[in-house]
Amino acid sequence: MPTPAPTPAPQAPREINSLADKLLEVHDWLRDQLVHLRAEADAHFAARAAHRGPGRPPAPGLGLQIRQRCLEFCDTLTFHHTAEDDHILPGVLAHHPHLRDTLDRLVDEHRALTRSKERLLALLADIGTGDAALFLAEFDRMAGELTAHLEYEETWLVPVLAQVPFPPAPPGPQDPPGAPGPRER
């Protein structure tokens, strides 16, 4: 039976003062979920492999839990990358046009991660009886791609986003709509 991955030590909540802090908070959550999902998948497949006797192995409750957590993870990843593509990256480009190639690479990586996520979700549909080695290999491939992407993104975006307060201060009563708030001036 495979040894489950170690559970990471709980992290103290990150203090959020800038958009970079918020980005890192989301990235920390995504990384943490990868560890938990891998451990749950290992446990599920070990329980399935331990089944002896006639008929199909009973569907462990962990299979449903993996499915739910994977879907939550994938939904969060999609939301995160859509928000970056639609809101964060265009703003960074407007103020830092020299980062165009970097931002284009990030968008391309978002698309590649979407394809990996879709392959993983297709395998997840058959988590109860599907090929364990294939699922784990696809999960590990996607996790490796995502981890490398997060590291690259942090290298380029954290320094830029550290200058953007989060949450943004609301505009003051004398400011026209859309004007920067007092913290943003």
UniProtKB/TrEMBL annotation:
InterPro entries: Hemerythrin-like. Residues 20-161 form the Hemerythrin-like domain. It holds the Pfam family Hemerythrin. This is Hemerythrin-like domain-containing protein. It comes from Streptomyces typhae.
